[in-house]
């Protein structure tokens, strides 16, 4: 499948993280430059596709768990190009028809934004789900945005999803300060869910070298990426209690089916966790 004409403002000369990730997941909202980059990355690090699927599956399990725990508001930062298992689809599947919930997707990438808007319109979900095209490094503007204000009541619990987005926030962007701002905005009972690329000490050396080449490849894109250790990620939860099973590898957070050998290989390369604000 080929992507439609690029919306205004889309740079199809340079790969973008949103569109390349769409390609990893088997989507169609990507251009030749993204596919070429994706193929190059896959050669460098063959686990990229399985880990992307694991990441998405973790996010889906978190949304279901949050709904089961009574949370009805979802803010998905760096939501990406819509693909199978979007937050509003999980909500629709899981929640009885007479119960209300709201979803805000946030992404600054024009293709992700345009495609999210189209899907929400087409699925008649725009009254309870919306797309905010903003940079998550500017939380003030995000909170003040008309769509955020229409859909989110910050005095009630929110499930704040930061799924494979924080590794695009570099050290110069003060990730610790940014996380503190988001944590402060949340009401007690809110959940903060994070996934982040890493390279644990127990990674096999050949695989560890592949991941480092993968990070090098992203230097040339609009979204340079950073790996972080658990010691760097853990403080972002602000000391809030982590829900069981704590900070874990993607396949190990409340798995809903047996872990395959290939999925098991992804363990040393991403951390995930969910904390609840006391
Ligand atoms: C790898 S995708 C992850 C998509 C989705 N969260 C998931 O895990 O399935 C990362 C997304 O974050 C977006 N992103 C990166 N930095 C961002 C920023 N500063 N503000 C808003 N979106 C950002 C990218 O455009 C991309 O769509």
Automatic annotation (TrEMBL):
<dbReference type="InterPro" id="IPR029063">
    <property type="entry name" value="SAM-dependent_MTases_sf"/>
</dbReference>
<keyword id="KW-0489">Methyltransferase</keyword>
<dbReference type="GO" id="GO:0008168">
    <property type="term" value="F:methyltransferase activity"/>
</dbReference>
<dbReference type="Pfam" id="PF04672">
    <property type="entry name" value="Methyltransf_19"/>
</dbReference>
<protein>
    <submittedName>
        <fullName>SAM-dependent methyltransferase</fullName>
        <ecNumber>2.1.1.-</ecNumber>
    </submittedName>
</protein>
<dbReference type="GO" id="GO:0032259">
    <property type="term" value="P:methylation"/>
</dbReference>
<dbReference type="InterPro" id="IPR006764">
    <property type="entry name" value="SAM_dep_MeTrfase_SAV2177_type"/>
</dbReference>
<keyword id="KW-0808">Transferase</keyword>
């Amino acid at each position: 499948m080929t992507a439609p004409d690029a919306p205004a403002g889309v740079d199809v000369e340079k790969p973008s993280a949103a569109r390349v990730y769409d390609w990893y997941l088997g989507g169609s909202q990507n251009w030749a430059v993204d596919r070429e980059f994706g193929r190059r990355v896959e050669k460098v690090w063959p686990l990229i596709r399985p880990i992307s699927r694991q990441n998405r599956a973790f996010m889906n399990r978190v949304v279901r768990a949050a709904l089961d725990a009574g949370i009805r508001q979802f803010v998905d930062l760096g939501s990406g190009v819509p693909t199978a298992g979007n937050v509003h689809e999980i909500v629709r599947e899981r929640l009885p028809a007479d119960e209300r919930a709201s979803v805000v997707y946030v992404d600054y990438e024009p293709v992700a934004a345009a495609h999210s808007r189209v899907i929400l319109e087409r699925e008649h979900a725009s009254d309870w789900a919306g797309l905010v095209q903003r940079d998550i490094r500017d939380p003030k503007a995000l909170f003040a945005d008309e769509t955020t204000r229409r859909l989110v009541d910050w005095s009630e619990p929110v499930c704040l999803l930061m799924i494979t987005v924080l590794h695009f926030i570099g050290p110069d962007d003060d990730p610790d300060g940014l996380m503190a701002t988001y944590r402060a905005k949340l009401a007690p009972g809110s959940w903060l869910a994070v996934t982040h690329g890493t390279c644990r000490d127990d990674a096999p050396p050949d695989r560890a070298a592949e991941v480092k080449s993968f990070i090098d490849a992203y230097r040339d894109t609009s979204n340079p990426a950073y790996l972080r250790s658990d010691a760097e990620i853990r403080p972002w939860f602000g000391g809030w209690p982590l829900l069981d099973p704590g900070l874990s590898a993607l396949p190990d957070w409340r798995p809903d089916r047996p872990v395959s050998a290939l999925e098991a290989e992804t363990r040393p390369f991403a951390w995930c966790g969910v904390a609840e604000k006391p």
